Amino acid sequence: MDTKGILIVEDERIIALDLRYKLARLGYEVAGLAHSGAEAVRMARDARPALVLMDIVLDDDMDGVEAARRIRLERDVPLLFVSACNDSPTRERALQIGCTRFVSKPVDPQELSKCIYEALNGMPSGCG
Fold it and tell me: How far is CA 92 from CA 18, 24, 50, 86, 117, in A?
């Protein structure tokens, strides 16, 4: 039941690569990159990441909130939404599944670092 690394779920390949670069610079290992909701659910099950960075808009018909809900049905893994889509209805859906952390795009590395630290250490969310 070991957990390892951070799973990045992002449909835009260039943004996914940028997040992987930022995580490496912050000293984190990346468990994998997923571009769709279905791929995210499968990778979260197989890779058992310590944290999931989740975009809202994904490559398939499952959005990030639904993918997060399905992942959390299988594992109580911390999730951090990284998205430009952080309107009230989306935040409300995320709150309903217990996700309170949001980082807006474009991603500020210091804010990302703070939110990841809080999520991995079970601290109350001071994130967006």
Answer: 28, 31, 24, 10, 23
In a domain, 125, yes or no: no
| Total domain count, the chain | 1
Residue 31 phi/psi, 5-degree rounding, is: -80, -20
Amino acid at 91: R
CATH code assigned at 39? 3.40.50.2300
Q: Which pair of tokens denotes residue 42?
A: 């499968």
| Token output for 96 | 């309903």
Structural domain boundaries enclosing 71: 6-120
* b/e 46-69 (16+ beta carbons within 10 angstroms → b): ebbbbbbbbbbebbeebbbbbbbb
Q: What is the token pair recorded at 98?
A: 């217990």
**Predicted confidence (pLDDT) per residue in 80-97, tens digit:** 999 888 788 988 888 888
> For the whole model, what pTM was predicted?
0.93
Identify the helix (H) or strand (E) that includes residue 5.
none
At 118, list the tokens.
């809080």
